[in-house]
Amino acid sequence: RYFDEPCRRGAIDVVGRKIDKEKFIRMVDELYEHKGLDKDGVPKPETLKALGLENEPSNLI
């Protein structure tokens, strides 16, 4: 729906426009990379190590 229907509210320059799906996915990928997450949003092993969480049970992360 968010990619198929125009926005009905929000900033003036956004109302009436659709969200570009490819751009949205690219931005999410960039954010995840910047935060040290994999493509599913799960912390990478090196991120956990940098945070001192490498020994935490995986079901808690």
Report on the structure:
- There is one protein chain.
- The chain is mainly α and 61 residues long.
- The chain has one domain.
- It has 2 helices and no strands.
- The longest helix is centred in the middle third of the chain and has 15 residues.
- The model has no long low-confidence stretch (mean pLDDT 93).
Q: What's the layout of helices and strands?
A:
Elements: H1 21-35, H2 45-50
Task: Give the structure's gist in a few sentences.
The chain has about 60 residues and is mainly alpha-helical.
Taken together, the total number of domains comes to 1
How many extended strands? 0
The number of helical runs is: 2
Strand content: under 5%
Which regions are unreliable across 5 or more consecutive residues at pLDDT < 50?
Answer: none
**Average residue pLDDT:** 93
User: What's the Cα radius of gyration?
Assistant: 17 Å
Terminus-to-terminus distance:
30 Å
Class by SSE composition: mainly alpha
Task: From the structure above, extract its key features.
61 residues, 2 helices, 34% helix, single chain, mainly alpha
